[in-house]
Design brief:
2 domains; alpha/beta; 6-stranded mixed beta sheet
Length: about 400
């Protein structure tokens, strides 16, 4: 692939990402506007770049034009005339009905003063008559790139042309990909605390992109029902409230599980009481899930200052309490008795020592894996002589 081809591919990819992200922003806004989201569908590349219909009847069609460099949407811009052609073809084929649909061109380019784009804009300078006059003149000219757009426009009757332009709105200097993302945050803050807004949007957007990939893979292109988007928000919102946290690693697995070759301290601790291979494998999984989850929460800014430290202290106190009770009733003299004691202490923490980091977070993998994180740092142990034995094993290793 040549360097130019690479740039073209990157521009196309950014254009698709722009469509998808802009479609999500509009969909989130519509949830607050419509009486019943289950009646509204959003589609990408079906009737237009982004379109909305109500029970199958098109209501809003949007052309999105993303440009990585600054520019102006001039009267002869291909973005305008290619869009005109797309919309006129939809009218002529009966896919949309004039007067019942809003047609919007959204571009990252600026709208020059006294231009068609300004005259078809949403501001005080909107002037349908002037725009019509200019477009009639331009469409009589010669321009290879815009020829199909000119011809499409001329197929409309005089009445249709005016109704057509009355349905069109052009929005310039539109937000880039990052700004669109920022505009979702105030919407998110209506559902979750401020510090959780970014992570909440990330979760929604991840599912949204998955849906869009799925609908674009269908022939013809499928739709996303806004009722599903509302259901997703309702489903995940409780995870981002102050009494809970999202459980994102419940079934996650490390890339490699090498039970026999794993020399980490928490594994050595389990070997001290001859833990089975299955127990070692489960410990590796829980360690991974807890470690990754804790890092993800920290990265997403979802944790309060000192919250992980307090949680770990709670687990350590739990371990001490269970250790103290076992020492009251268990005889720990022979090596076999030490092994039995170790296994009981480990089981007690893993089964009965589950602590919620927040009241509504009930996933056990966090506590189970965090015990192993503490054991890996020698903050806790299972064998009565775990510090000496682990140190000896490390020396041998």
């Amino acid at each position: 692939m040549s360097k130019n081809d690479q740039f073209n591919a990157s521009a196309s990819m950014l254009g698709y990402l722009y469509q998808i992200r802009y479609g999500l922003l509009l969909s989130l806004k519509k949830l607050a506007e419509v009486a019943d989201p289950e009646l509204i569908n959003m589609s990408i590349e079906l009737l237009d770049d982004v379109s909305f219909d109500k029970e199958g009847v098109p209501e809003d069609l949007l052309q999105t034009k993303f440009h990585s460099k600054p520019g102006n949407l001039t009267n002869s811009s291909p973005d305008i005339w290619k869009t005109i052609r797309v919309w006129v073809e939809a009218i002529n084929t009966g896919k949309i009905e004039l007067g019942k649909v809003v047609l919007t061109l959204v571009t990252t380019e600026a709208l020059p003063k006294k231009s068609i784009a300004i005259q078809l804009g949403m501001g005080n300078e909107r002037d349908i008559e002037s725009a019509l006059k200019t477009m009639l003149e331009i469409s009589e000219g010669e321009n290879k790139t815009n020829a199909k757009g000119y011809q499409a426009f001329k197929t409309l009757s005089k009445v249709q042309k005016k109704a057509f332009l009355n349905s069109i709105y052009m929005i310039g200097a539109s937000d880039d990909l990052l700004r669109i993302r920022e505009k979702m945050k105030p919407i998110a803050r209506q559902s979750v605390p401020n510090n959780a807004a970014d992570a909440f949007i990330n979760h929604i957007e991840g599912q949204w992109f998955a849906w869009c990939i799925d609908l674009l893979s269908q022939t013809p292109t499928g739709v996303i029902n806004l009722g599903n988007l509302q259901d997703l928000i309702d489903l995940i919102r409780p995870q981002y409230l102050s009494t809970n946290l999202p459980a994102e690693f419940t079934d996650a697995l490390p890339d490699i599980i090498d039970v026999d070759g794993d020399l980490r301290v928490f594994i050595q601790q389990l070997r001290l009481f001859k833990a089975s291979k299955n127990m070692l494998e489960l410990a590796i999984k829980n360690y991974y899930r807890a470690f990754e989850q804790r890092n993800k929460w920290s990265k997403d800014g979802l944790l309060n200052p000192g919250e992980l430290g307090s949680f770990d202290q709670k687990l350590e106190d739990n371990w001490k309490e269970k250790q103290s009770f076992l020492e009251l009733f268990e005889i720990i003299g022979t090596e076999q008795e030490k092994l039995v004691y170790s296994a009981k202490l480990y089981q007690s923490c893993q089964v009965d020592g589950i602590e919620p980091i927040r009241p509504e977070f009930i996933e056990g993998y966090l506590s189970k894996g965090s015990y192993h994180i503490l054991a890996d740092n020698l903050k806790i142990g299972w064998h009565p002589e775990y510090k000496q034995l682990v140190a000896a094993n490390e020396d041998v290793a």
